[in-house]
Amino acid sequence: xxxxxxxxxxxxxxxxxxxxxxxxxxxxxxxxxxxxxxxxxxxxxxxxxxxxxxxxxxxxxxxxxxxxxxxxxxxxxxxxxxxxxxxxxxxxxxxxxxxxxxxxxxxxxxxxxxxxxxxxxxxxxxxxxxxxxxxxxxxxxxxxxxxxxxxxxxxxxxxxxxxxxxxxxxxxxxxxxxxxxxxxxxxxxxxxxxxxxxxxxxxxxxxxxxxxxxxxxxxxxxxxxxxxxxxxxxxxxxxxxxxxxxxxxxxxxxxxxxxxxxxxxxxxxxxxxxxxxxxxxxxxxxxxxxxxxxxxxxxxxxxxxxxxxxxxxxxxxxxxxxxxxxxxxxxxxxxxxxxxxxxxxxxxxxxxxxxxxxxxxxxxxxxxxxxxxxxxxxxxxxxxxxxxxxxxxxxxxxxxxxxxxxxxxxxxxxxxxxxxxxxxxxxxxxxxxxxxxxxxxxxxxxxxxxxxxxxxxxxxxxxxxxxxxxxxxxxxxxxxxxxxxxxxxxxxxxxxxxxxxxxxxxxxxxxxxxxxxxxxxxxxxxxxxxxxxxxxxxxxxxxxxxxxxxxxxxxxxxxxxxxxxxxxxxxxxxxxxxxxxxxxxxxxxxxxxxxxxxxxxxxxxxxxxxxxxxxxxxxxxxxxxxxxxxxxxxxxxxxxxxxxxxxxxxxxxxxxxxxxxxxxxxxxxxxxxxxxxxxxxxxxxxxxxxxxxxxxxxxxxxxxxxxxxxxxxxxxxxxxxxxxxxxxxxxxxxxxxxxxxxxxxxxxxxxxxxxxxxxxxxxxxxxxxxxxxxxxxxxxxxxxxxxxxxxxxxxxxxxxxxxxxxxxxxxxxxxxxxxxxxxxxxxxxxxxxxxxxxxxxxxxxxxxxxxxxxxxxxxxxxxxxxxxxxxxxxxxxxxxxxxxxxxxxxxxxxxxxxxxxxxxxxxxxxxxxxxxxxxxxxxxxxxxxxxxxx
Length: 934
Known about the structure:
By secondary structure, this protein is α+β, with helices and mostly antiparallel strands. The longest helix is centred in the middle third of the chain and has 28 residues, at 520-547. Residues 1-34 have low confidence and may be disordered. The strands form 7 sheets. The protein has an 8-stranded mixed beta sheet with strand order 18-17-16-19-20-21-22-23, with helices on both faces. A 6-stranded antiparallel β-barrel has the order 8-9-12-11-10-13. Strands 26, 27, 28, 29, 30 and 31 form a 6-stranded mixed beta sheet that branches. β22 and β23 (818-822) form a beta hairpin. The chain is built from 26 helices and 31 strands.
């Protein structure tokens, strides 16, 4: 019996780590703890499980009970969190909001919102209102019900006929409601399980069968004292008989019309084995259920979940000799898949791209599976990143003492400790066009499978393109908080990763970020931009001038545009007009910036567009989603003001190499220094142009006198830097979110919150600011474990060379919980005459052809090649008469002369992209062309 208590529960690499306790000690432990307690059972008989479940339900308060089992490629989870369990946050998503455009005086009232973003409300949702002008009765904080929800409007179950008329403004926010779940006991749920959580809709009839199969297995073990033997027809037959007897005892809808004996044979044969991918997947799932039971956050599994991956099995039936144990660490895996699969797995040549959260989990799984541990096997892992403190919560192969070390090297070392036979090479190179000398043709040609463990789309797309080019299977996965997805990219069987893309994230218009923010994301985007401009880009630009002043000035004069003018203005500020030489200068600079950003600019904006301003069409200028701002008045007694000044002063000093005095940590002395700064009175300027066009991409449009201004700036710069010490250089600061002592997030959070205060937007703490400004993709160990477990189940299929119908792509959300598994989409097939091809095809032409011969080659296929390019260069296009002079030249020579193509000595081919049309003038998308010239 294995028991796990939530406050001593440890999650490690997908395994359920548990403590062994007797019932008396268990009871004492519960009474001693004030936490909500959770118990996880594995490898326990149903009789004992029912006893412990009843004990947990009778305890006051009830103890959350979880039972999990893995039997080969089959798994089950049962949850009982008590007769009445309250879920405080069903899905973990931020409450949806909308910016109000109008509210009618009706019953029910029609609420319309601006079309800035679609509303995500659903009928029955409760919402509250705030900041409504005119119809102020709605600002009472009372939750009101939504009905007839539409993308930009909804009806409110409220009679507003006698309310004040709506004038302007207002935010509507979803109110999350707690949900009470009434769990059944295990004994009751076994007899009346209710609805099962489905993972694969092609197996909608599988969970009821497995519900009986796991009970039959319990009876089998009770009867015979052991689990069924692998590939034993006799034991499988006994299990089938137990299952049929259980089914015959049922009546009504509970009774199955048919029993799939083939499924039960596989279930019996593998029932002794615990496979690592299954342990990883179920460890992640159960780990998240423990968190739910402890916190009430996210919807629990209610109540049974059954899963199988029979598609991972070899196609040929396994004989007893195939699954006979070898007295080695892989005997469990051999008992399910046989010795041949194990040998192929050990000799596999794998490439894991990334050694972060996903990479660590994958590496652990592969080591435990014995992948690349044979005499012909090799696992290559690469990551150009180093370990940071924030990684340790989910990248469990790393420890405190590894901070600052290369991720791939440490991960490889840890994986070798798990399996000393693992043949692994760790590299510190980013996989990109810049490293094709490292990851060359020979490297890719020698690979069997690529496993992506990346955290950004561009890197995924590049690896995907390489796998398509070299015809290599790619196992793709990604996580976002409690959500994960896996995608199988198999040559000629499935579409590639780049074939389907999520729509790009909607970017706020530049004018919104700079002048008209209406949420904290806008404020943080602006704050991050200002941080980079002030502390990284401007010092770097100043250094560009200081290193080669004559070349720099010539380039600025030659460009003569608004961008060059703006860059020069910043360099002049940095090196001349706002140059800091002492820390007191830095304090003065920070205080002046505060006044400029949060007072003067707002005063100028409201002077140019007063509160009663109207648009050219006569509508109020300050209508939703715009929020009318108010300037801030600096106060040394406001901790948020002083924190911002301190962070800005210290970082400014760092860029100049100015020592930081010890008294900066003394708030009183810092305030005294700030009070000495002289602030000029604000005087509004006439004729200031403030960009309001949402399509504008430049906040500083060009003017007719840009060149003259640039000349003046250069003269100012030349005279202003004469007294700089020889060799003076600034120190640009790159944003680093994970060092809590570097003041980076203090400054960004301070900037954002002061701006939010200008516009009456709710402020955020530094942690949330870090997530948004640092563009952190939330990653948690539970989701990562489940995603990599699913990937490794697919790896078996790749090694066994399965057909497409056996593979599964998965989307899962542990918060709901939700599973959606489906067969991968096949690649798009293009046809022309008798020819057909897909993205996986490449046309290879042998010989050192001339351009004319290449065109004739296409003509023979009924295609007219009208444009040929190599890399970024066009080497032929039929519309240019001069290109006809190239017809008798070798394509290779044209590529070398025009595209500056450099071909490594060991490469025998080069690639070109050809645009074709058929006889009717219709474009035909042909494959990439490889010309083997030697």
